[in-house]
Design brief:
Elements: H1 3-10, E1 14-15, H2 17-21, E2 29-30, H3 42-48, E3 52-57, E4 60-61, H4 69-77, E5 104-109, H5 121-127, H6 133-146, E6 157-163, E7 169-173, E8 187-191
Parallel strand pairs: 1-3
Antiparallel strand pairs: 2-4, 3-5, 6-7, 7-8
Helix pairs in contact: 1-3
């Protein structure tokens, strides 16, 4: 299927080459000469046009630097106003934030699947193929800049395929704290697994 047909079906839920060209300034991207094809058929896209985004992931910013959480964070930090990352630094020395984005088409839900809510991390890992933290971070900010400040997973956290250096599962999201107690910002956290050094005295 051509990009133009997918764009016609999905509307603002499609982020392809033309859409990425429109991101300028802090989130300017470098489009590669060769764009991979995607295999979704017309009926499948029509069935998911209101619930999912189809986005082209590209590996580099316009200055040639790899797209990673670390580099996205550096760029957003210099942006005056919204969007922003939640003010935390626990992950700055973690390996997963330097993982580069790969060239691919990503099909991702705009909201957390209801059936997966409150499901333990081990059960989630056994049942679902998870997206990486850099894929979800890239999707959030690219969509934000293109679609007039739309916040994906605004009040929810999304499990990722990555783990920290201690093997704890990463999750991201929840830009806005519904309680109003915490500052706004795209959050990155880890789910602490119960290990042998946990116990009672």
């Amino acid at each position: 299927m051509e990009e133009s047909k997918a764009r016609e079906i999905l509307g603002r839920s499609f982020i392809g080459t033309d859409e990425l060209k429109r991101i300028e300034g802090v989130f300017s991207l470098e489009l590669p000469a060769h764009i991979p094809e995607f295999s979704f058929d017309e009926q499948f896209l029509k069935e998911h046009k209101d619930t999912h985004i189809l986005i082209l992931c590209v590996p580099k910013f316009s200055n040639g630097k790899d797209i990673s959480i670390s580099e996205i964070r550096n760029r957003i930090a210099s942006y005056n106003g919204n969007p922003r990352f939640y003010n935390q630094d626990w992950y700055l020395n973690e390996q997963f934030i330097n993982k580069p984005l790969e060239l691919k088409w990503l099909f991702v839900s705009k909201s957390v699947l209801d059936e997966s809510r409150a499901m333990p991390a081990d059960s989630v890992l056994a049942k679902y193929n998870l997206h990486s933290a850099v894929e979800l971070t890239y999707t959030f900010f690219a969509n934000y800049f293109l679609n007039k400040g739309e916040k994906l997973w605004n009040n929810d956290y999304v499990w990722c395929s990555d783990v920290d250096d201690k093997g704890d599962q990463i999750y991201v999201g929840r830009y806005t704290d519904a309680s109003g107690l915490n500052a706004d910002g795209f959050e990155i956290h880890r789910h602490l697994r119960i290990k042998n050094n946990y116990g009672v005295v």
